[in-house]
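Worked example 3 (structure in, sequence out).
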């Protein structure tokens, strides 16, 4: 699985620590991590929580990654932004229990985490334990056992509702303010990672047009 990490401008100083915790947990499982920023370095391209959602949607719909770990101060803004797009099902995950139940019950492909709240001593441990529960037990298996069948049925119903109510991704992307989208796609390693891994030709073409390539 290819996993993207995206952090928002208010939390960029924590990016290296979050990346380290994510890699520590998921790389031994065989997953790859792609850090799309924003990075802690001086002058790193800023991302608002709205742009976190745009970038997450481009990566998932473009086939560049299979999963997105994002977040902002509270995690709420990044979750709302991500869920504005088709092809993204993002949960708000603050701890290991949230992570496990979201993976098993809701079977999404993105999480938004509250990187400013309750993050002092032990924050790296909470991140590690959260990533273990998120990625270490599969997904969509249901919880508890007696709820598996209705939960899996409801997930399919939700997918159908979203397919009916959300616009095709590229159509919506091209109607968003061009500078806002361009800013979301301007992190230091976006082009290197995205074009090496993306598989959806329509999304690739849209990204090239937006970036003027």
């Amino acid at each position: 699985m290819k996993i993207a990490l995206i952090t928002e401008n208010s939390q960029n100083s924590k990016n290296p620590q979050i990346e380290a915790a994510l890699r520590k947990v998921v790389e031994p499982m065989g997953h790859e991590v792609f850090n799309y920023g924003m990075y802690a370095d001086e002058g790193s391209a800023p991302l608002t929580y709205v742009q976190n959602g745009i970038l997450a949607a481009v990566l998932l719909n473009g086939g560049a990654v299979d999963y997105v770990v994002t977040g902002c101060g509270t995690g709420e803004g990044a979750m709302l932004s991500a869920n504005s797009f088709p092809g993204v099902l993002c949960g708000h995950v603050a701890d290991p229990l949230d992570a496990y139940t979201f993976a098993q019950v809701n079977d999404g492909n993105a999480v938004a985490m509250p990187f400013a709240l309750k993050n002092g001593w032990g924050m790296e441990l909470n991140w590690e334990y959260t990533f273990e529960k998120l990625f270490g037990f599969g997904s969509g298996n249901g919880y508890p056992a007696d709820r598996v069948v209705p939960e899996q049925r409801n997930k399919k119903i939700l997918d159908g509702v979203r397919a009916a109510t959300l616009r095709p991704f590229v159509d919506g992307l091209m109607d968003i303010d061009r500078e806002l989208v361009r800013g979301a796609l301007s992190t230091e390693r976006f082009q290197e990672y995205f074009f090496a891994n993306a598989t959806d030709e329509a999304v690739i073409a849209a990204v090239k047009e937006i970036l003027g390539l």
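Notes: The first strand starts at residue 2 and ends at 5. The mean pLDDT is 95.
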